[in-house]
Amino acid sequence: MIEKINLNNILFLDIETVPEEENFNLLDAEMKSLWDLKTQYQRKEEFTPEEFYDRAGIWAEFGKIICISVGYFTIKGDIRNFRVTSFFGEEKKILRDFNNLLSNHFNQPQHLLCGHNAKEFDIPFLARRMIINQIAIPDKLNLFGKKPWEIPHLDTLELWKFGDYKHFTSLKLLTKILGVPSPKGDIDGSQVAHVFYVEKDIDRIVTYCEKDTIAVAQIFLRLRLEDLLIEEEIIHV
């Protein structure tokens, strides 16, 4: 069925998140206690709440979004381009700008969002952070009351599962086995918070996020048995 989807109607995306505060000691007493309770099961006896705080970026209640990268195809005749752009800076502005993009350019019934593990991570994280920042959730992210077949999202992880719901394959592994150029540069997800808070190098994070977005699009092409994008077809805007 994915072969029948018009590529021009898909918005590919990836987000980068970090703990909301640079370190555990910057949390107020109540948030420290809530973090302790939230992470008890994952930490067990191996880590203190403070030692575990570097992972706070994976929970929307304790993390924040620092970059959203999106990409979309423009295909006219035999000319194919993939345009990539990013939103970064203050979180509320990132979310508003992304919201405006969805509301103004990807708001029709035929439009779809696509990420890797996006249904489990990116989409819920975006929706929760919008509520926390008191931003109205755009229709494409508001899934309340929708039946599974009405949800306008594609997920390359889900497509690769082929119904095997216990299976997880990382973006890096999937690109490797499908012959997609590796999206990873000089950092990985575990280093994003350090690069953001200590090195203060948002450009490096944006590059990393955009590479992942391109990789998702490449995997989608592979799943359709189509030619991969070449460098000349990718346009950064």
UniProtKB/TrEMBL annotation:
<dbReference type="InterPro" id="IPR019288">
    <property type="entry name" value="3'-5'_exonuclease_PolB-like"/>
</dbReference>
<dbReference type="InterPro" id="IPR012337">
    <property type="entry name" value="RNaseH-like_sf"/>
</dbReference>
<dbReference type="GO" id="GO:0004527">
    <property type="term" value="F:exonuclease activity"/>
</dbReference>
<keyword id="KW-0540">Nuclease</keyword>
<keyword id="KW-0269">Exonuclease</keyword>
<dbReference type="InterPro" id="IPR036397">
    <property type="entry name" value="RNaseH_sf"/>
</dbReference>
<keyword id="KW-0378">Hydrolase</keyword>
<protein>
    <submittedName>
        <fullName>3'-5' exonuclease</fullName>
    </submittedName>
</protein>
<feature type="domain" description="Predicted 3'-5' exonuclease PolB-like">
    <location>
        <begin position="62"/>
        <end position="225"/>
    </location>
</feature>
<dbReference type="GO" id="GO:0003676">
    <property type="term" value="F:nucleic acid binding"/>
</dbReference>
<dbReference type="Pfam" id="PF10108">
    <property type="entry name" value="DNA_pol_B_exo2"/>
</dbReference>
